[in-house]
Design goal:
There is one protein chain. By secondary structure, the protein is mainly α. Strands 1-2 form a two-stranded antiparallel sheet. The chain is globular. The chain starts with a strand and ends with a helix.
Length: 103
């Protein structure tokens, strides 16, 4: 049985959904070794906008998420939760390990 992204987000209010997306974007940026300034140059967005986005003071449009994903060489879908597959205990453990790595 597979649980969809919509199901995962259904239990979260819109602000929590946005926080999740922005946090994933930030984690991907940091893990890629890209500074806010470098992301700014790559995406043609101002560094202050990116900083305010990561602080939750600004909200990204779909176009902004696409530009940032392109600048980070990832798919915009990478900012959203993955569908969870509950086929085996080992798969669940692996997903939990991956999530804990993000913390």
């Amino acid at each position: 049985m597979s649980i969809s992204i919509e199901h995962y987000f259904k239990s979260m209010d819109i602000n929590k959904q946005l926080e999740y997306i922005i946090e994933r974007m930030k984690v991907i940026r940091i893990k890629s070794g890209v500074s806010q300034m470098e992301l700014s140059l790559r995406s043609s967005l101002s560094q202050s906008f990116i900083a305010n986005l990561e602080k939750g003071k600004k909200q990204p449009s779909v176009l902004t998420l696409i530009r940032i994903a392109g600048a980070l060489n990832v798919n915009p879908q990478d900012f959203f939760p993955e569908p969870i597959d509950f086929n085996t205990k080992e798969q669940i453990k692996e997903k939990i390990r991956k999530l804990l790595e993000l913390l």
